[in-house]
C-alpha cells in the first residue's frame, strides 16, 4: 500500500525548506533582478540618451543614499550577518514605491519588465523575511523613503526622462549591491566562509 504524500501545513517541521535552499532561491532571484535592472537601464539609455552622456550627469545621490551601505567588499565583509541581512531588506523595501511608479510611468515597452522587477523584488523581500526568521534575526522596519515621482535629488529643471533615467540607474546600482550582499551571506552562513 502506498501512502499519499503528506500535506504540508504552515510551520510543519516535516516540510521545512533547508536554509541553503532558501539562500539558493534568494540568490537566483537577486541575480535575475539585477540582470533585469541592467537590461531595463541599458534599453532606456540606448533609446533615450541619443549618444548624450547622461550617466556623467547622474547625481550620486539616490533615494537610498541615506542607508549606510559599505563602500567596498572589505567594508561589506566587516558587517555581521544580521546587519547585512537587514541592509538587504532595507534596500528592497526602499524600492517598493519607486518600482511601482516606474512600472506605471515608463514607456510601454519597458513597463512590462518594470512590473516584473517590482513583483520579483517583493518576492525576494518575502524570502529575506523567511531567511531572517530561520536565522532568528530581527529585521529593522526602517527603510529609505522615496520622495515622489521627481526625486528630490533631481533638480526641477531637468526633464522627466532624466528623472526616470536617474531612478533606473539607482535601481541597477542597488540591485547589484543586493545581489552581492546575498552572495556574501550565503558564503558565510551556508559554506562557513569557504567560497
Notes on the protein architecture:
- This protein is mainly alpha-helical.
- The protein has one domain: Growth Hormone, Chain: A.
- Helix content is 62%, strand content 0%.
- It is built from seven helices and no strands.
- It has helices spanning 19-48, 54-57, 73-78, 81-94, 96-105, 108-134, 160-189.
- Helix 1 (19-48) runs antiparallel to helix 6, helix 4 (81-94) runs antiparallel to helix 6 and helix 4 (81-94) runs antiparallel to helix 7.
- The longest helix is centred in the N-terminal third of the chain and has 30 residues, at 19-48.
Topology:
Elements lengths: L18 H30 L5 H4 L15 H6 L2 H14 L1 H10 L2 H27 L25 H30 L6
Helix pairs in contact: 1-6, 1-7, 4-6, 4-7, 5-6
Amino acid at each position: 500500500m502506498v501512502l499519499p504524500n503528506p500535506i504540508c501545513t504552515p510551520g510543519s517541521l516535516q516540510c521545512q525548506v533547508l536554509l541553503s535552499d532558501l539562500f539558493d532561491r534568494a540568490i537566483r532571484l537577486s541575480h535575475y533582478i539585477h540582470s533585469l535592472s541592467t537590461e531595463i537601464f541599458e534599453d532606456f539609455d540606448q533609446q533615450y540618451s541619443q549618444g548624450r552622456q547622461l550617466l556623467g550627469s547622474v547625481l550620486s545621490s539616490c533615494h537610498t543614499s541615506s542607508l549606510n551601505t559599505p563602500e567596498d567588499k572589505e567594508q561589506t565583509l566587516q558587517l555581521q550577518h544580521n546587519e547585512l541581512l537587514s541592509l538587504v531588506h532595507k534596500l528592497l523595501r526602499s524600492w517598493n514605491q519607486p518600482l511601482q511608479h516606474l512600472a506605471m510611468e515608463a514607456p510601454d515597452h519597458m513597463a512590462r519588465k518594470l512590473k516584473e522587477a517590482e513583483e520579483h523584488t517583493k518576492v525576494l523581500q518575502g524570502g529575506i523575511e523567511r531567511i531572517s526568521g530561520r536565522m532568528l534575526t530581527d529585521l529593522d522596519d526602517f527603510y529609505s523613503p522615496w520622495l515622489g515621482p521627481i526625486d528630490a535629488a533631481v533638480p526641477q529643471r531637468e526633464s522627466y526622462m532624466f528623472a526616470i533615467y536617474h531612478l533606473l540607474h539607482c535601481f541597477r546600482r542597488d540591485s547589484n549591491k543586493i545581489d552581492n550582499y546575498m552572495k556574501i551571506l550565503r558564503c558565510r552562513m551556508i559554506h562557513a566562509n569557504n567560497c
